[in-house]
Amino acid sequence: MSAVNHMSGNEIVIYNAQIGRGTYRNFEGRSGEYNSLGARNFVLFLDDDFARDIEAKGAPVVWKPNKYDEGKLRAQMKVHVKYRDKYGNPLTPPKIVLCSKKNRTQLEEEDIKMLDHADISKWDLILSMYKNKGNTGPENSVSLSTLYATLNENELDAMYAEEENGEVPW
Predict the structure, then answer these.
(1) Torsion (CA) 44, 38, 148, 73 in degrees, nearest 10
(2) How many C-alpha atoms does 115 have within 13 Å on its Cβ side?
(3) What does the pLDDT look like over 48-80, one tens digit per residue?
(4) What is the mean pLDDT of the chain?
(5) What pTM did the predictor assign?
(6) Residue 143's beta-bridge partner residues?
(7) Kindly report the CA angle at 131 between 127 and 137, in degrees rounded to 5?
(8) Which residues of the chain have pLDDT under 50?
(9) Domain boundaries 6-163, corresponding CATH code
(10) Contact (CB, 8 A) for 132 and 80
(11) CB 79 within 8 A of CB 142
(12) Residue 135 in 3-state DSSP?
């Protein structure tokens, strides 16, 4: 069975997603020009056809100038990574799994900041779309439900993983 990106109801499934680097990733919740302290999120870049399809179904797709292809727009979507509601009450946490050739490790809230700088070869994820109150009325947002991030391992990573009987030494 081949994996195909799709949206069903309020759930969006994306295989081999394109997640930006640097300021486009904020799993830690750093404050900055585009982010308030504690707000964890990342920017997901989308294939144009898929972006138009989910945008027509209400997904909050934004089209911005493509810095690699002048004159064209690139579809992107901000994804929230939530552990608490705006009042600080716990929510059902997203399932975030870091995969290597030998292991899968489910990351806890305090561990996900490592994804800001990790060399990831593949991102597979499930998002949930929901309505919230915006400044100008109701608006749709998306939050992370499930993420499988596969590390891009080099020769030494593989060698040490084998020596540790499958246990990753970090």
Answers:
(1) 0
(2) 32
(3) 999 999 999 999 999 999 888 888 999 999 999
(4) 90
(5) 0.88
(6) 80, 128
(7) 145
(8) 1
(9) 2.40.50
(10) no
(11) yes
(12) coil
Q: Are 93 and 146 in contact (CB under 8 A)?
A: no
What's the rounded Cα separation, in Å, for the pair 39 and 53? 28
Identify whether the C-beta of residue 168 lies closer than 8 Å to the C-beta of residue 156: no
From the list 42, 43, 62, the residue with the least C-alpha distance to 52 is 62
Q: Burial of 156 by CB count in 10 Å (0-12 exposed, 13-18 middle, 19+ buried)?
A: exposed
- In whole angstroms, how far apart are CA 170 and each of 93, 158, 166? 24, 13, 12
Strand partners, 154: none
- Distance (Å, rounded) from C-alpha 134 to C-alpha 11? 21
Strand partners, 144: 127
Instruction: Report residue 83 as tokens.
Output: 């552990």
- Please tell me the distance from the alpha carbon of residue 60 to that of residue 2, in angstroms, as a whole number: 26
